[in-house]
Amino acid sequence: MIIAAVMNNTPLPSTHNKFVGYLLWLFGFTGAHRFYFGKPKTGILWFLTGGLFLVGWFVDLFLIPGMDREADRRFATGHLEYSLAWVFLTFLGVFGIHRFYMGKWVSGLLYLVTGGGLLIGIVYDFCTLNTQISNINAADRGLIRV
Question: How far apart are CA 21 and CA 26, in angstroms?
């Protein structure tokens, strides 16, 4: 379906929001925008180096539109909204709200009683949230995601 959209020159459905990406870019030296757009490796690098010593952070100002397009190609649309899940993870992750939102009640309860799995679960979710949502959205639509 996504391949057909690219071949027909029709726009891909949007999974991520550029505006949210730019808001997170303001805190980009922490890698927040990179995690949001599904780039956990460079998100960790930005977090550990202060946005690659602020140089990478500044360059990302111009790269966000491309990161948004790439995220739209990589991740499946569906009933779960990526931006909402990221807000839940970022601000309420220790309570497992993002897990409840995804329908993962057991792990949501575990996060609730352990403070986000003693924060290990939060770090895991920062690196994998986009893929988790994409898999759920694809499964709901009967698509197989690799």
Answer: 9
Q: Which residues lie below 8 Å from residue 94, measured CB to CB, with a gap of 6+?
A: 111, 115, 116, 119, 122
Predicted TM-score (pTM) of the model is 0.86
pLDDT for residue 22: 96
Stretch (H or E) spanning 66? helix 55-74
* Residue 76 backbone phi and psi in degrees, to 5: -80, 140
- Residue 29 to residue 4: CA distance in whole angstroms: 37
Does 128 share its domain with 59? no
| Segments forming the whole domain that contains residue 24 | 1-74
42 and 20 inside one domain: yes
**Residue 1 pLDDT greater than 50, yes or no:** no
